[in-house]
Amino acid sequence: MTDELADENVIYVGNKPPMSYVLAVVTEFKKDDAKDVVIKARGRAISRAVDTAEIVRNRFVTEAKVDKIEIGTESVTNDEGRTHNVSSIEIHLVIE
Amino acid sequence: MTDELADENVIYVGNKPPMSYVLAVVTEFKKDDAKDVVIKARGRAISRAVDTAEIVRNRFVTEAKVDKIEIGTESVTNDEGRTHNVSSIEIHLVIE
Q1: Strand pairing category for A83-95 and A64-77
Q2: Most-buried pick from A54, A70, A94, B77 (CB within 10 A)?
Q3: Min CA distance, A78 vs chain B (Å)?
């Protein structure tokens, strides 16, 4: 379990400019010579997650490929206790 | 060639509310009993494309599955002749 979690190099994309996340992904690939990095986002940040993956593989880690992309729906409860659904994405980048 | 193009049921997601595109995808599935529909979007509409796919498969066409998702980068030239890159997504939904 611990090993499995340790293997996952995950970057969560939020509302900062895309280059912040690009830098985070590139750093993750350099660290311990990681072979895979997962980029995750929800809601409107999904577009930014795709931008991040595209900039990383076109400009910085050109040997990285998209291994798989998964989409889903998550329930989020806000401060007022109301629940709504948001879409999510996971982009798996790998170096072969 | 013509057959191949005719086989592709494509919905382009833009800036309308997600339910417009959900309706378009559902209609496409009903039409000629289509077994696959492709949802395409660029830039900020990418999040809405994911919402569309998720709403379709969770609420309207529950037998539909995500077959594959592809991301890419496209060059867009604006009215002033300037070129910039935008990310794109293609979500392939299938009924097996």
Answers
A1: antiparallel
A2: A54
A3: 19
Q: Which residues of A touch B (CB under 8 A)?
A: 43-47, 50-51, 53-54, 58, 66, 69-73, 85, 87, 89, 91
Inter-chain residue contact A87 with B44, CB threshold 8 Å: no
Between the alpha carbon of residue A92 and those of residues A73, A95, B34, B58, B76, the distances in Å are 18, 10, 30, 23, 26
Question: Which residues are CB-contacts of A15 (< 8 A; sequence separation ≥ 6)?
Answer: A45, A48
CB atoms closer than 10 angstroms to residue A27: 13
Which tens digits make up the pLDDT trace of A31-82?
878 899 999 999 999 999 999 999 999 999 999 999 999 999 999 898 999 9
Domains, chain B, ordered by start: 3-95 (3.30.110.20)
Select from B47, B57, B70, B74 the residue whose CB has the most chain A CBs within 10 Å, as the one to mutate to test that interface.
B47
The whole-number average pLDDT for the span B55-71 is 96
Model ipTM value: 0.88
Cα B36 from Cα B90, distance rounded (Å)? 12
